[in-house]
């Protein structure tokens, strides 16, 4: 195990909010899963795969949410026109091919012979119905920003569709790979729109019976408990090997680990960094590790005093040692973030200025802003151990400048709702980048049109940044786009609406009883090739 810094020793002693994280220990009744010498486990068909997850999904409607716990489930039910591999290359999905007709129009040739789980045919009309639903202002989709530049969706024939945009939009194909573009059965969309006309909320019907073309079909959802999917035996491509997949909500790390050891679950997400060695040294599983395109950050509500003053935000940023957090709380898993875009993602900039720790300068900035004697505030976190520990660390550090911080821990659904509504002072959250483009890592987080649920929970507004992000969307030349995003990020870092902590490394526990598991760089599980072994 990596050497732990004094920070974690400090966290143990701070009892304002603390969560115990212990690894699954040995149990006399547990099964020894070591393979006898001279034999090798072989993959088998069937079985019930159980994944223990920290938080429940908020919506099973691709247009209805933009949070990771929802996305990892949706990605198994629905498919997108375009997919993206780990090299950030675009590949065919429900669209077999595409071409640019002109600078505003893309034409897609769709895969034939695909059916939705309800037996409805997948075709160009289904694509048109899905995109027009996301664009429908009455649906009020938090994923509207992905496609708001689309002006027309034209059915050319049953398996050819054209998408026209208001302006040349370079990342359109990347956005179509996001699971917010998951294609829902048009029959269910029609039923959902009818329910909306009767006064029900958008997505009510889709949440009750999510129907896509994916390799798993929805079976049941007991909120705050479990979501169960079953294999789609009529799937058009390579069928999955397991019979069912259950996403079991399990907030306590110790419970997840114990269930992994006893064989009750086969995958746990997340593994706490301090638990990695104990699981890797066990006889029941290993920790799956993968660098991510995600950002972890501490956000300020820039619309509320004192965080409406950039000097206060800058001062607090100067009091935080990012590497201390990475080493002390995340056990060194992940890389320090200079800005919002992770390495390997278009728009990443290694030359961004890094706000260094400087206590004296921070004190001067606070004095200049009128807060030489400090102030009282709150920081919110959900039930993530690392986020809670980060909040405790920040609480301690800010005492140096007489800032009294109260920590509030909220349930995931309430956390998203309240931060979307702007009820917070400071908060801790993350953002992944499934399309692999700077537009997705910047526009929803920092454009003033995206306040709240769409992504801008810091309620940050800078007219120059807005103009640059709009320009970046309209510029077709990738080199020029990169320069635009470089300038935008420099302004954002200077304004400090958030403290960029790190680009995390995903850590998941995987049982020795399965093989073939993978995730992508945005944290979406790849379950199609998972098999039990005997």
UniProtKB/TrEMBL annotation:
This is Glutathione ABC transporter substrate-binding protein. Residues 89-451 form the Solute-binding protein family domain. Keywords: Signal, Transport. Residues 25-46 are annotated as: Disordered. Gene3D superfamilies: Dipeptide-binding Protein, Domain 1, Dipeptide-binding Protein, Domain 3, Periplasmic binding protein-like II. It is a lipid-anchor. Residues 28-43 have a biased composition (Basic and acidic residues). Its main location: membrane. Residues 1-20 form the signal peptide. The lineage of its organism: Bacteria, Bacillati, Bacillota, Bacilli, Bacillales. InterPro entries: Peptide/Ni-bd, SBP_5, SBP_5_CS, SBP_5_dom. Belongs to the bacterial solute-binding protein 5 family. It comes from Savagea faecisuis. It is found in: Cell membrane. It comes from the Bacteria.
């Amino acid at each position: 195990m990596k050497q732990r810094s004094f920070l974690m020793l400090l966290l143990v002693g701070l009892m304002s909010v603390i969560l115990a994280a212990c690894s699954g220990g040995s149990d006399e009744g547990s099964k020894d899963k070591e393979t006898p010498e001279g034999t090798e486990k072989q993959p088998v068909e069937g079985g019930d795969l159980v994944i223990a997850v920290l938080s429940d999904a908020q919506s099973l409607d691709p247009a209805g949410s933009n949070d990771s716990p929802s996305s990892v489930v949706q990605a198994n039910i629905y498919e997108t026109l375009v997919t993206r591999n780990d090299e950030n290359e675009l590949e065919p999905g429900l669209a077999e091919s595409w071409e640019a007709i002109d600078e505003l129009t893309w034409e897609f040739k769709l895969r034939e012979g695909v059916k939705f789980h309800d037996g409805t045919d997948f075709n160009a009309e289904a694509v048109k119905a899905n995109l027009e639903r996301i664009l429908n202002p009455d649906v009020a989709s938090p994923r509207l920003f992905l496609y708001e530049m689309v002006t027309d969706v034209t059915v050319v024939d049953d398996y050819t569709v054209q998408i026209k945009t208001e302006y040349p939009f370079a990342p359109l194909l990347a956005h179509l790979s996001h699971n917010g573009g998951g294609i829902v059965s048009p029959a269910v969309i029609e039923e959902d729109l009818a329910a909306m006309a009767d006064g029900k909320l958008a997505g009510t019907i889709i949440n009750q019976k999510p129907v896509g073309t994916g390799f798993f079909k929805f079976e049941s959802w007991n909120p705050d408990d479990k979501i169960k999917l079953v294999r789609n035996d009529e799937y058009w491509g390579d069928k999955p090997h397991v019979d069912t997949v259950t996403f079991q909500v399990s907030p306590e790390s110790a419970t997840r680990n114990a269930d992994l050891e006893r064989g009750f679950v086969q995958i746990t997400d997340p593994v706490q960094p301090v638990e990695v060695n104990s699981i890797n040294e066990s006889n029941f599983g290993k920790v799956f590790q993968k660098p991510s395109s995600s950002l972890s950050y501490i956000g300020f509500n820039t619309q509320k005093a004192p965080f409406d003053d950039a000097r206060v935000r800058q001062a607090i940023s100067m009091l935080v040692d990012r590497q201390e957090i990475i080493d002390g709380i995340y056990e060194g898993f992940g890389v320090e973030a200079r800005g919002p875009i992770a390495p390997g993602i278009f728009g990443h900039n290694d030359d961004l200025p890094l706000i260094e720790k400087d206590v004296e300068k921070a004190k001067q900035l606070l004095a200049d802003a009128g807060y030489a004697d400090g102030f009282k505030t709150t920081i919110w976190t959900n039930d993530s151990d690392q986020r809670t520990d980060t909040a405790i660390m920040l609480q301690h550090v800010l005492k140096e400048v007489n800032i009294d911080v109260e920590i509030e821990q909220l349930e995931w659904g309430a956390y998203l709702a309240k931060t979307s509504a702007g009820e917070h002072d400071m908060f801790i959250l993350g953002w992944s980048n499934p399309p692999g483009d700077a537009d997705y890592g910047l526009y929803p987080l920092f454009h003033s049109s995206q306040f709240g649920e769409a992504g801008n929970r810091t309620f940050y507004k800078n007219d120059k940044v807005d103009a640059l992000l709009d320009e970046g969307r309209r510029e077709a030349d990738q080199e020029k786009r990169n320069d635009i995003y470089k300038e935008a990020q420099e302004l954002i870092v200077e304004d400090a609406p958030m403290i960029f902590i790190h680009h995390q490394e995903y850590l998941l526990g995987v049982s020795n009883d399965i093989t073939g598991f993978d995730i992508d760089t945005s944290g979406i599980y790849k379950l199609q090739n998972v098999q039990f072994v005997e």
